[in-house]
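Exercise 4. Each item below gives a protein and its sequence. For each, produce the structure-token representation.

Item: TerC family protein (Xaviernesmea rhizosphaerae).
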Amino acid sequence: MQEILQLVQDPTAWIALVTLVVMEVVLGIDNLIFISILTNKLPEAQRERARRIGIGLALVMRLALLGTVAWIVKLTAPVFELFGHPFSWKDLILIAGGLFLVWKATKEIHHTVDPVDHKEDMVGKGASLSFNAAIGQILLLDLVFSVDSIITAVGMTPHLPIMIVAVIAAVTVMLLAANPLANFIARNPTIVMLALGFLLMIGATLIADGMGFHVPKGYIYAAMAFSALVEVLNMAARRRREKQKSGH
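Answer:
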């Protein structure tokens, strides 16, 4: 309790909190895009529930990992060496998650480009199987993004209360943004391809990070923001043309 009071009175703690909240929200974008695309594949009645469960699992997983900070720090310690490069458990988790994202995004891009070639939904034939499989895949990616998120938090501040508040704030933002983002993606088919491209890039970045080739996150998010801006301009141009045609 005394530590919390000291943190409340410390201006540097507030700066660390704001910085960490922003970082956690930015890192949560990847997680949110995946959840939005995956849940949009479910029957409409199940989508919001799946999003809430997925984001709730992300919160539970992050808080659980915060409870084992000492163990999380050990994940960065090398466990074996291959071709002269040391690999840690964190690296292996990032590589596995990156490969899964690349596979999932590639499969969905193929499905979008050639839908006739796919007789069943990406997560199964039946509605209940689809829901369970979707939650399973969300849980898998929640683990990958949670490990990355918590290791980032540990690297930015040594204070556990600040980490907990930042994680709860970031996941709350994810929860509020989940439905608007998913609905926006569902209403605009071209955004789906753009979002899948983002997932492909994020997957490749996770693999590169796991292999020891660090790509600054700023470059990734700047590219995503620029691509999104171009697509917004394209959408505005399409709507203007449609209005002009309907006016004639």
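Check: The first strand starts at residue 78 and ends at 82.
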